[in-house]
Amino acid sequence: MRLLRSRDLVCQQAVELVTDYLEGRLRRSARRRFEAHLAACPHCTEYLAQMRETIRLTGQVAPEALTPQMRDDLVELYRRWKSGGR
Amino acid sequence: MEADGDLLLRLRSGDERAFVSLVELYQGPMLRLASSFVPSQAVAEEVVQDTWLALLRGLEGFQGRSSLKTWLFRILVNQARTTGTREHRSVPVADPEPAVDPARFNAAGGWADPPDRWVDLAAERGLAERIRGWIDLLPARQREVIILRDVEGLDSDEVCAVLAISQTYQRVLLHRGRGRLRQLAEDELREVR
What we know:
The complex is a heterodimer of chains A (about 90) and B (about 190).
Chain A: H1 11-14, H2 18-22, H3 28-40, H4 42-58, H5 68-83
Chain B: H1 4-12, H2 16-34, H3 41-58, H4 68-82, H5 127-135, H6 140-151, H7 156-163, H8 167-192
Helix pairs in contact in B: 2-3, 2-4, 3-4, 4-7, 5-8, 6-8
């Protein structure tokens, strides 16, 4: 086992940097430390993959449907607004 | 999609087709967003309708400093927050909790209980269908940021403008919210195994 340098990240710190990393908000030196940790740590690599998958799945939540009734109501709303004094 | 400027001109001049195209684009996303704030579908529909009315009333004064979409979502969030929402009064300061339970690490800060692999099982176990319900379990502020960023696809500047929060706070909320959703996915697959 190699000696742990004081500047090395531990897993508990690394997982808290995941969002800053994905947002591109880590400074270059912090990003290098984070990536160096990932390269040596399969569990944190898995954690990052799971966060990416979570984001991808969240993006698949479907919008709710526009019903013909809603459309008619809104067109009516627009017509009233148009004819009202503005 | 056409530039906001053209659309605004057409809306102001009473072009019904311009309004309908806006409705087709945003009614579904706005309903999805509104229903994360309020307790029932009926109230969500009301909030969205009120938002359209507020948009029309504000058209003349709209300066175009933000995009039409950001403006629309900001009106919606304000309408939803004042319309008897759940938890809307809780405005916590930065949440100090970590995204991962400290009990899962050893004394040196390494994983003692590492993440269970589930990414390959997500589709087969229907996680995409479950996530909508999980978002509703999040604390209000985290839920708002997750919906705007990860569901509606706004960028971080737009989310900060819609919710009137700082970039730093936005990232804290995003981190906690995503972390909690990841944990729920892991729990789900642990239980069924």
